[in-house]
Amino acid sequence: MPTRDEAWPTGTPNWVDMSADDTAAAAAFYSELFGWKVDAPTDDAQGYAIATLNDRPVAGIGPKPAPEMPANWSTYIATDDADATAEAIKAAGGSLHMDPFDVETEQGKHGRMFFGTAPDGSTFGVWQAFDHIGAGVYNEPGSLSWNELHSHDLEKAKAFYADVFGYTFDDMSSPELTYFIFKRSSDDFGVGGMGPAAMLPEGVPSVWLTWFAVDSCDGAVAKVQELGGSVVMELGDSPFGRMAVVAGAQGETFGVISPSEAQGEMPTPN
């Protein structure tokens, strides 16, 4: 089981959380779907709970910050200096939802964070780890597997995220699909993906999509529907795994992928 105990390197998507209308219902939904354990939040956590898988943190569930917001999954990107990253975001043409702030409870000082928006309209979190590194298990059924940006202005997005996080890109596009895998400048492997917002309904801004690994994609999709969710993008096969995009019972969108069910040759960069 892939696990991690140290802070994720700057530029790596390192955490995801759901902003929910009903946090208890969301906890029940994902516990049934992924086998998570979600303890009740502590009194000073403002309703925010940490979900665990095999006793390791896997995702967060908390109340929506504003009633008019739709329920959603957010992607966080690691940094070793939240304040410096905030300045880099502004210099690259992005904006901040709030200044960086420390996240603390009686259990300790967990990290420093903020949310920002890129010039293409995509919103993301930034997390500087203290006690909480982010995901402690990954690429395991029921855990975070991949994060990708669906952008209405892909070239603008690529330029922004490269300026802020130093990404380089492998062009994995085909005649049917435009897709880039982004890498940290010091790595030879991809840490996420970016593509155009073709699958997004009209009026929906550029968005980061969270993918969770599962044993059986068909089984996961059936379970989502049984629990009150729906299918957004039908099941399909790929060299990366059998996959689908679904919506949870509160309307939040996420992907499920079964790497063990991969079919076809792995593509190479153009």
TrEMBL record:
CDD domains for the chain: SgaA_N_like
Cited Gene3D superfamilies: 2,3-Dihydroxybiphenyl 1,2-Dioxygenase, domain 1
The organism's place on the tree of life at top rank: Bacteria
Name recorded for this polypeptide: VOC family protein
SUPFAM superfamilies: Glyoxalase/Bleomycin resistance protein/Dihydroxybiphenyl dioxygenase (SSF54593)
Organism, scientific name: Nocardioides immobilis
Pfam families named in the record: Glyoxalase
PROSITE patterns: VOC
Domain VOC: 12-129, 143-259
